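Minutes, project check-in
Item: structure for the 444-residue chain
Input as provided by the requester:
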Amino acid sequence: MMKKKALLVNPWVYDFSCYDLFSKPLGLLEIASFLKANSFEVELIDCMDRLNPRLESFTGEKPDKGRIPICGIYHSEEVSKPGVFKDVPRKYKRHGMPEKLFKILLEETAKPDIILVTSGMTYWYTGVFEAISLLKEHFPGTPVMLGGIYATLCHGHASRHSGADMVFKGPDMSGIAKAVSALSGKDCAISDGRFMSAYELYPRLDYATLRLSSGCPYKCSYCGWYLLNPEFYQIEPEEAARQIDHFYRKMGIKNFAFYDEALFYNADNYIMEVLRILADIGVKANFYTPNGLHAKFLTKDLAESLRRSGFIAPRIGFESAYDTRQKTTGGKVDNRELVEAISLLKDAGYSSSEIGVNILIGLPDQSEREVEESMRFCHKYGVRVHLEEYSPVPGTPYFDRSGIALDADPLLHNNSAFPLYDKERYSAIQGLKQLNTELNRKNH
């Protein structure tokens, strides 16, 4: 019997800017492994694969290198702005491979039996729709399934407008397993364990992005992660180390980024154990934490373990120096705990310029003064401050304060457009971003 074939697609991003900060479609790559385990032939078209040799030969452009050499900006092309963005004084772009290259890759692909498309931020759905339209035009009759963040948080909108034949909500793969079982004529059940991301589908890799846990033990008022993954659990330390070792030895990957929401949770029994196993088996890699780490859980032993194990430029999640904000967003960290965490990292051997702190900007009821004082509080300790712009997330308490209707166009969730509800506020945010750039430059 001939193998069934699945085509997996990570669509373009339509936005004002987009940066590859260890970005990979983890859910889609786990589904790829599930399909391969069930005897499917799997092909991946990742429109956001910056390092794809076909992209370089097609555009003649070398991959951009950012401050972190293995990261950088994507190839992009300016496109017309949707009407809701008419007042945004910035160019709107399609980020990722040119549409012509995407069509060429489709021409080179044998007709699949099933197509799976993922989705990122809710306000990136334009690229999702475009990909689905082209896929259905090129492969008529092949069922298209859609999942991911947008499909989960805006399930109704996706079901009505995406053009997908099936739209899946949340992390549960049982619906996909059922559809795949019906297609293949055999039971394709989900095992108890998680599938390893199928990074072997990429022609070239400079890094692997990892998520060793699902969900988050916190329910911060601005964050929707608990809506995407309601149950928090961590895979066994031995399995986590096995996966990293596999990518390290079998694929030669030396750079790893953790996108866990709570990597330090239960640190003594979890991440410390993972790092101990990796040290015992001789894995010497670089580790990155762009998502922000919990200062509350940082100890002397953990800080020293991070330094020994090769963690580069650790970032701490802070959000705000205002006590009231800290309490209303989830109470994860206070000023004293942040200062203590910075001190522990410095004592472990990190310089001030290596330590990053994430601060929120653009919350519905957040003043310019709060952001500036939070920035200056952190800069006082010489660390590098990263401003994380707020985007309204449907289903969260802060979304109710945003003034955006639940059934409004998800494009309005874009962090570049949301502040335009108040043009003075938009101007203030741009000023704060410029000030932070200057303070970072002054310190470093």
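Outcome recorded: The CA atoms of residues 172 and 229 lie 9 Å apart.
No further action items on this chain.
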